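Narrative of activities, Objective 1.

The group set out to show that a structural description can be obtained from nothing but a protein's sequence at a throughput compatible with the screening campaign. Below is one input-output pair from the validation batch, recorded exactly as produced.
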Amino acid sequence: MDDDERKIELDCISAIFPEIVLSFEKPFSASIDLPVHPANPVKVVFPASVDDQPPTPPHSETSGDEGPVNGNMVENVESHNLAYLPSLRLQITLPDGYPSSLPPKFELSTTPEWLSRAHLDELQASGGRMWEEGGRTETVFGYIDSLQQAAENAFGHGEDKTLEIPQDYKIALLDFDIKATQAAFEKETFDCGICLGKTIL
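Output recorded for this entry:
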């Protein structure tokens, strides 16, 4: 029905977030990729595999490989400060009975899986709590907003904390950070020292 509360809410969300994708196969469902660009670069460590020699990563000036200390090798843990991390994919389903009887269904994922499944499950559960504590009313906008705010702190991994990610994902994450940084640089506007005008690279 055109006056279904779920349709009205998703239409409003689409107006606020034009990048959201509404599902044509599953009614009252949608998905959105939320960028993760923390306010400050996040220290990410990639513990080396005991059995396998890790592949050579893309060049990064932010690397901080551990080396010999007083003639002894410390634990082989490689670290990088990353300004960009792969987006958080949010899938939304508004079931029959939402919002008065049933909570919305939120599913979160990252590719590659740089956030643990346990951490994603906790973020998903927070959406249900938000619906309950808010008086069982429309929750989608508030939940997306809360995820965006959490992304500014890398979902609790910022502020001098360390994010540990499996070695298998190192190449993908470093490559993503390099490309995202370059893309952001190319969108910036600079003063031209010759014509004193604005130059967009």
